[in-house]
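Input structure tokens:
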């Protein structure tokens, strides 16, 4: 049996990162918008992360992961990174659409954050004034 396992390992090798599944779409959106919320809160003194709502959303998304077969404690190692297309979508909806870049003024961060909060559920739920 040990010899068979060795042959199989040599034939296929260890699982590569390319074989890992992508995270569920909704979880990918959550991660991407969560990063935007952190960036906004860091650059706009009047907007902050709503810690209670953060915990609620985090729990909902971990339950989604578990339903999809990922483990709560090891999900980062069980899946590929958020697909570039989803990150690009979020980046366009926030950073590109509002001209957010290095050196952007606090007032512009605040304005962009408030505008997107009106349209985007994760930002609206994660940020508070």
């Amino acid at each position: 049996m040990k010899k068979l396992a060795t042959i199989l390992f040599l034939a296929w090798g260890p699982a590569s990162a390319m074989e890992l599944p992508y995270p569920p779409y909704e979880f990918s959106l959550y991660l991407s918008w969560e990063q935007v919320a952190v960036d906004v809160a860091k650059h706009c003194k009047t907007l902050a992360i709503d810690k209670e709502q953060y915990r609620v959303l985090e729990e909902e998304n971990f339950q989604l992961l578990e339903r999809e077969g990922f483990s709560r404690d090891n999900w980062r190692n069980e899946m590929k990174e958020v697909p570039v297309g989803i990150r690009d979508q979020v980046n366009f909806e926030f950073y590109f659409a509002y001209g957010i870049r290095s050196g952007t003024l606090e007032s512009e961060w605040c304005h962009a954050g408030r505008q997107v909060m009106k349209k985007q559920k994760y930002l609206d739920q994660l940020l508070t004034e």
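Residues 28 and 82 are 5 Å apart (CA to CA). The chain has seven helices and two strands.
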